[in-house]
Amino acid sequence: MINQILFLFGLYGFGVYFGLIFKRQIPCAFIGVTGFLWGTLFWVVGGIFFKIVSIPYTPVSMIGFFIILAVVFSIIHIKMNTWQLSRSELTYLLLMAIAFILVLVIASIFNLSVGSTDSIANIFLGRRIAYEGHSEAFFQELSLLGVYLPQLQSASIFLGDDYLYAAQPAFAYTFFLIYLYLSHQVIGNLFSDKRVALALTFLTGLVLFSTYYMVWQVFYIHNNMISAVYLFVAVSTFWLASIEDKYSWMIFALLGLMGFSLARIETPIFALIFLVIVISFDQFSYRIRLISILPYLFILSISL
Amino acid sequence: MKSIIFLIVLSIVIIHTTILRNKVWIRFGTMLFPLILVVNIIYNFYSFDQINKAKEWQLQRLPSNELIDLIEMMPTPIKTPWIYPLIGEYYHGRTLSIPLNLLDPLDLSLELLQSQGRLAYVKTIEHDKKLTEHEVEMFLRMKYVELYLENGETYHFITEEMGPNSPLLILKHERQIFIIPEDLLLESEVNP
Fold first, then answer.
1. Which of A181, A174, A230 is nearest to A34 (CA)?
2. Interatomic CA distance for residues B82 and B102, integer angstroms
3. Residue of B nearest to A210 (CA)
4. Nearest residue in B to A112, CA atom
5. Mean pLDDT confidence for A14-29
6. Is residue A134 very low, low, confident or very high in pLDDT (cuts 50, 70, 90)?
7. In this predicted structure, what is the pLDDT of residue A8?
8. pLDDT tens digit string along B37-95?
9. Which residues pair with A82 in a beta bridge?
């Protein structure tokens, strides 16, 4: 249980560390809320990368992959002078980290996980990745499921757990916070009175997350919640990129779209439709659009 | 009745729109909409337990964080292909013997047992021993994990402590299938 909490918290921390590269343009609130999404995305993309370059998928190789990424991010941080945090930023990030670890601990102690045929298929497929690597038989089974959840669940073998039971609640918690953050941005644009905007944000958030089906999805081991949260982030951050005229939002929009595309087998089709809108959007220069889109298309094409 | 309620609500909206003109949306956004949301939240909390109890897939705390508990809490029975990885969870690296006469009725693949079941060796044997009711009762007194398959059969993975290298044997009695270490079987025959 401890291993799982530390692993998921480590992914969250890594995601925050990555997000802080953009802290000059992106609010720290957004970075602190979405860290888990980027950390897990790096884990999944790392696993796919190892398959492509035929490196065995082991805990050592994954740790090596994350160390290399951390070094790259550190160089960028030093170069851009983004490694220094103000007292308020540090306090906020620490509070977010404590809240996140609390969610993981509670989800691990009170395991309310719900499983279906798909859940078990995803868990078993994940365990097979860890045992056998990405074999041909594995890819045949994967043709019915997305790669994201099995790849993430495969970490359970390295951790000595049967499956990742705290991951779904962590995604749901992230979704709840992102929903509050981004809907506040949207509602704030519609209402001049900040109190009304804040009240409506919380009320709509509570309506959504008190609905039975939504609560059920918090514990349901499936790719539904994962694809939903990435799509929500992709669409919202693209909208923010357009209204705030900040290029950095585009990076998060494309990362969100990447997570969405890897979550289910049919999602790349919807993602490509969304991408057409992004490409046709001429607010940013052609060069910026190309830089944003090419890494996404590259990873998507090699993972398909 | 519904049509009357609809007409009343529509009339109120039209009257408000006429009297308040542009202010109607501000009033709606700041007063009526939050009220609707609060009612919705109260209803969600109030109805949660009832919906949960009525559902087949209920939210309930699992007895442990083990995979078997997640599987057992599922309302749907287990599919035969899941047996392979589950064998791997309990008997990883062991040798398994399957009586030839059981291979077809159990619909098991030797190849998948070895690969997905992560067994060291899988072999077929000539074994036509019929389990007695007494033996079945004795097996069921041992430590085991029970799995109900969608075809109505039940697998019993005997997990009673025995020599870690003891070969395993699959035995069937009516709709019950037992995977049992051979040492335990021999012991039960010596000390019935």
1. A174
2. 18
3. B44
4. B61
5. 90
6. low
7. 95
8. 888 899 989 888 888 888 777 888 888 888 888 888 888 777 778 888 888 888 888 88
9. none
Q: Which residue has the tokens 């404590």?
A: A98
Q: A44-94 pLDDT, tens per residue?
A: 999 888 887 888 888 899 999 999 999 999 999 998 888 788 888 899 999
Restricting to B residues 113-142, those with a Cβ less than 8 Å away from any Cβ of A are: 115-116, 118
Name the amino acid, one letter, at B41. I
Q: In this structure, which amino acid lies at residue B174?
A: E
In this predicted model, what pLDDT tens digit does every residue of A234-276 receive, in sequence order?
988 888 888 887 888 888 988 999 999 888 888 888 888 888 8
For residue A221, which residues of chain B lie inside 8 Å, CB to CB?
70
Cα separation, A278 vs B96, whole angstroms: 57
Cβ-based contacts of B37 with chain A (< 8 Å): 200, 203-204, 206-207
A215 reaches B (C-beta below 8 A):
yes
Cα B139 to the chain's mean position, in Å?
Answer: 23
Residue A303's pLDDT band (cuts 50, 70, 90): low
A202 interfacial to chain B (CB closer than 8 Å): no
Query: How does residue A95 score in pLDDT terms, banded at 50, 70 and 90?
Result: very high
Q: List helix spans (H) across chain A.
A: 2-19, 28-52, 59-80, 87-109, 117-132, 136-142, 148-153, 155-159, 167-190, 194-210, 212-219, 224-244, 248-263, 267-280, 286-303
Tokens, residue A269: 């089709």
ipTM computed for the complex:
0.81
A112 touches chain B (CB under 8 A): yes
pLDDT of residue A277: 79
Residues A85, A218: Cα–Cα separation, whole Å: 33
**At CA B92, angle to CA B161 and CA A54, rounded to 5?**
155
In terms of DSSP bridges, do strands B95-99 and B121-125 run parallel, antiparallel, or are they unpaired? parallel
| CB half-sphere exposure, B171, CA atoms < 13 A | 20
Per-residue b/e over B55-67, b at no fewer than 16 CB within 10 Å?
A: eeeebeebeebbb
